Amino acid sequence: MSDLVRMPLENGGELLIESTDGQGSIPVGGGGKVVQASETVQKAMGNIRSAAEAVLDELRAMEQPPSKVNVQFGIKVTGEANLAVAKSSGEANFNVTIEWNDVKPDK
């Protein structure tokens, strides 16, 4: 059974997100569970943005920086009501695709 995570928004609203991780949840009517997040959606997404910026900064610092970078995160909401990089087949779901156009060979 899926649980719900209640994440506050900085403007005073809230977002309910489905989670399959039952850790730290609080039972509510109807057999489901609701977890109150400890941080806002914006704060949690800021952490993901910081990780993406770190990856991009490292790739842009390459001797021959790529023409195009695609960074893809699988994000899941944990039972502790935090955002995390999701696992896929036991490993972190974090994909990076790099492309170079018009690469000049080293002399």
Protein described:
- 19% of the residues lie in helices and 37% in strands.
- It has 107 residues and is an alpha+beta fold.
- The strands form 4 sheets. The chain has a 4-stranded mixed β-sheet, with no helix packed on it.
- The mean pLDDT is 75.
Low-confidence stretches: none
Order of helices and strands: EEEEHEEEEEE
Distance N to C terminus = 60 Å
Strand order of the largest sheet: 2-1-4-3
Overall mean pLDDT: 75
Q: How does the helix and strand content classify structurally? A: alpha+beta
Beta-strand proportion = 35-45%
Describe the largest sheet: 4 strands, mixed
Please tally the helical runs, counting DSSP H or I stretches of 4 or more residues: 1
- How much helix, percentage-wise, in residues? 10-25%
Q: Whole-number radius of gyration?
A: 19 Å
Shape summary: elongated
Number of strands: 10
Would you spell out the secondary-structure blueprint of this structure?
Blueprint: E1 3-8, E2 14-19, E3 26-27, E4 33-36, H1 41-60, E5 68-73, E6 75-77, E7 83-85, E8 87-88, E9 91-92, E10 94-99
Parallel strand pairs: 1-4
Antiparallel strand pairs: 1-2, 3-4, 5-10, 6-7, 8-9
